[in-house]
Design goal:
Layout (H helix, E strand, L loop, with lengths): L2 H41 L3 H7 L15 H12 L10 E7 L1 H21 L4 H13 L2 E8 L8 H21 L2 E6 L18 H7 L5 E11 L20
Helix pairs in contact: 3-6, 4-5
Length: about 240
């Protein structure tokens, strides 16, 4: 065997061993990463667990700790990925915090006072409750439908899209330990409420400065809460609601 051939053979063996070692090292590292991911996943709640954990957490349950802006940003990002027929993305959100959330509380209280006094059902404690709810919350988000005149979708489908967007917000809030509650206070025009149609009063339209294509579907109150606010819920067995 020539010296050159022997040297080449040794180099080939070394290269092959090196490649084998590198492959083994990379596989071992990937295996360890997979183990780490699986270990972390086992500590995290599953999507189904978060869905089951979600509750309407009312402002009276909030603990006064401020909710970080990043949490609300994440909730809104989740809303953006709700199902939407023809990609109309018919949601429109108006976020109130700081002093502006107190202005929402004042609007809701005064609107209640006007409509309830007219019907003879005004209660001071309910008026005060609306003010307290706003003060207890870190954020109040107006949940609106923005339905374009040329939309190909029936209105009900676009309302459903907004509702699914709000559900996404609820779930992300739950995952992050933040409470939220969807209220329909002052949403309906009293003259139209019995018809079950979603018609906003002129008062709420003026307050929110809604365009002709926009309709408010409610308010999402958001606040920090203790973990025991997400207590076990009650639902009937799904078998009672399904036909196969």
């Amino acid at each position: 065997m020539s010296e050159r051939f022997a040297t080449a053979s040794i180099a080939s063996v070394v290269a092959a061993c090196g490649a084998s070692f590198l492959t083994y090292f990379m596989l071992a590292k990937q295996h360890q990463q997979n183990d780490d991911v699986n270990s972390n996943d086992s500590k995290q709640e599953s999507t189904l667990e978060i869905i089951k954990k979600r509750r309407s957490v009312f402002p009276k349950q909030y603990n006064g700790e401020p909710v970080a802006r990043e949490v609300v940003d994440a909730m809104l990002e989740a809303a953006r990925w709700a199902p939407t027929h023809h990609l109309t993305e018919p949601w429109h959100f108006i976020v109130y915090s700081g002093e502006s959330r107190l202005a929402v509380g004042n609007f809701l209280a005064e609107d209640y006072k006007e409509t309830a006094t007219a019907s003879g059902k005004f209660l001071d404690k309910k008026y005060e409750k609306k003010l307290k709810n706003a003060k207890a919350s870190s954020y109040i988000i107006a949940l609106c439908l923005d339905r374009k005149p040329n939309s190909k979708c029936p209105e009900v489908e676009e309302i459903c899209s907004v509702a699914m967007a709000v559900q996404n917000m609820h779930l992300v809030g739950t995952e992050m330990g933040v409470g939220s509650y969807w209220s329909s206070a002052s949403v309906y025009d009293p003259k139209e409420k019995k018809s079950r149609a979603i018609v906003n009063s002129s008062a709420i339209r003026d307050f929110l400065e809604l365009s002709p294509t926009q309709t408010c579907l409610g308010w999402l109150f958001v606040g920090s809460c203790e973990d025991n606010c997400f207590k076990s819920g009650l639902r009937k067995p799904i078998a009672d609601k399904v036909v196969w």
